[in-house]
Every structure is written in structure tokens, then in C-alpha cells.
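Morning!

This is the sequence you dropped in the shared folder:
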Amino acid sequence: MAKETGKLDKLILEARQNADKRAKGYREQALKLYPWVCGRCARGFDHSTLQLLEVHHKNNNHDDNPPDGSNWELLCTYCHENEHARIKDSMGRTDGGNIETAATFNPFANLKDLMKGKP
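The structure's back. C-alpha cells below.
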């Protein structure tokens, strides 16, 4: 059992290292391609604050890293977090296994009927 655990630990470590290497590669590339400005709030960054600028994958596929950077945008930490929160909200968050769906109420659904006979 201990031998199997060791193999699994080694496999997980290798996967994490590969993911870190891949992330470092596209981040460096994106920082060379794009100006150091958040694509949402337009906040500017320099070498001392560059750690707050993150690469966002437009199609949410972190393995889709074209060399021209067409799937990336640079976002500050705050806008990047907000973008992912918006995506989660639009898909419905899970809470204890229960999926909360987006609101479906439409206050104007019956407007046409209400306007019938009004001048």
C-alpha cells in the first residue's frame, strides 16, 4: 500500500510541476505580447506590481495557449476573480450538492397582455 501511495504522490508532483511550467510559459509570453494594463479596469502595472496581473483564458481552457495569444487577456487579480465569479454565477453554483439555478423571473413577461386596451 505504501508503495502505491508513493507512486501516486510522484505522479501528482509531476502533474503539478508540468502545470506550473506550462503556466509560466504562457504568462511570460502574454506579458511580452500585451501592455501591462488590466483589460477590464485599465489599471496600469510596473515591475513592482506585476504579480497582481494575471492571464485569463477567454474560453476557460487553460490548455488552449496559441502562440499569438488570441485566447488570453491580462486582468488584474480583482477583475480576474470577478470574471470567474461571473462565470460560476451564470452556470449556477453548487452548495452542499444542490445546484442553484439562475433567476428565471421576467417582470415584463406579461406586459403585452397588460397593455391591451390601453391608449
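Headline: Strands lie at 53-57, 72-76, 94-95, 98-99.

More detail when I'm at my desk.
O.
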